[in-house]
Design goal:
With 376 residues, this protein is an alpha/beta fold. It is built from 14 helices and 15 strands.
């Protein structure tokens, strides 16, 4: 089984924190759709076997018309072997999620929505420069549920200035009361070339408070685990059996194809990424060429990526898997480093490896980097 991700590189406006590739020039949506249909044909040999998941991400996929989404889905069905029990996700902004659109998406075959709520707090939405209001955030969930969607995920961002613990607790309670089965919670990060980074550099915005972020991360974990949810990946929580199949496949090293400008693809042995420029993407596709760069993944890189993604999962890493896929030298390397982290209480033993302790999860990426195999 494999997955397909499609990047829709358009937004109505730029959020202050976002560093994803997108354009606010939505007049090019039709030209993008035409190019995407051609790329689907050009990329049809990249994956083998059935496609288990489709994911329309962005950017803002909910800006696409019903006709555009239908044409994309039809082209995918014509060029790939889609599984009968397909998980088909669309990311939607609350201000786009009308009752009619929700019904349209369901009729096309979309069966999972990921709604970019980010916060129900008016001051937080204004600070992030989000396009939607608190009222629209509530209405979007109500519209999705009324249309018949039961597999719904929502995003929250924590650790932003002025977001109090009480604010965050209220956001969580709202989602729990709505019966949402999946929540993705992301700590605010300051990326270069974003408005937020520029404001911090100019001293017009305060720096990120890492102590606040760690405290709010633990607040989220405690509340959702108390509600019986699985903290199955550092940023992701779900009710039992409600995990995101598509994102879980990323973390389990399953091959996937990325379509559209800036989209990434992975087939175990190599990784490739499309050019992050809409106009150059259009021109290249017109010439029947996919504008992608390719990186062959050597064993050290594959090992490092395995440690990074496995330590983000609740199952952790497996020594047997390390030995079988990378060799005994990598197994011994991982065991040596694990000893100290286990003594410090940062790792907890599993039947064949280790997983992060609750206290260490907020520092997952830093701990994973200590396992990296460094080239001589």
């Amino acid at each position: 089984m494999s997955g397909i991700y499609i990047h829709i590189p358009f937004c109505k406006k730029a959020c202050h924190y976002c560093n994803f590739h997108f354009s606010t020039q939505t007049k090019y949506l039709d030209e993008f759709t035409e190019a995407l249909l051609v790329e689907i044909e050009l990329q049809q040999q990249y994956l083998n076997g059935k496609i288990e998941t489709l994911y329309l991400g962005g950017g803002t996929p909910s800006l696409l018309s019903k006709e555009a989404i239908q044409s994309i889905f039809t082209k995918l069905k014509d060029n790939f072997d889609l599984a009968q029990e397909l998980e088909f996700t669309l990311e939607a902004n609350p201000d786009d999620l009308s009752a009619q659109k929700a019904e349209d998406w369901l009729s096309i075959g979309i069966n999972r929505l990921s709604i970019g709520i980010q916060s129900f707090q008016p001051h937080s939405l204004a600070w992030m420069n989000r396009a939607h209001t608190t009222t629209q955030a509530h209405q979007s969930i109500q519209n999705a549920k009324a249309a018949g969607f039961s597999n719904i995920s929502t995003d929250l961002i924590y650790g932003t200035p002025h977001l109090t613990d009480q604010d965050l607790s209220e956001d969580l309670e709202i989602l729990l009361n709505y019966g949402i089965p999946h929540i993705s919670c992301y700590a605010l990060t300051v990326e270069e070339k974003t408005a937020l980074h520029s404001m911090i550099q100019k001293k017009t915005m305060e720096e990120v408070d890492t102590l606040q972020q760690a405290r709010q991360f633990n607040l989220i974990v405690d509340r959702l685990e108390k509600a019986g949810w699985e903290h199955y990946e550092i940023s992701n929580f779900s009710k039992p059996k409600q995990r995101s199949k598509h994102n879980s496949n990323y973390w389990n090293g399953v091959p996937y194809l990325g379509l559209g400008p800036a989209a990434h693809s992975y087939n175990i042995h190599s990784r490739q990424w499309n050019l992050a420029n809409n106009q150059l993407y259009f021109q290249s596709i017109k010439n029947k060429m996919v504008p992608a760069e390719i990186e062959a993944l050597q064993i050290p890189t594959q090992f490092n990526e395995y440690m990074m993604i496995s330590l983000r999962k609740m199952e952790g890493f497996s020594f047997e898997k390390i030995k079988n896929e990378f060799g005994a030298v990598y197994e011994n390397h991982a065991k040596t480093i694990s000893v100290q982290f286990a003594k410090e209480g940062k790792l907890i033993a599993t039947p064949d490896g280790y997983t992060l302790s609750k206290e260490a999860k907020f520092f997952a990426d830093g701990i994973a980097s200590d396992f990296f195999w460094l080239a001589n």
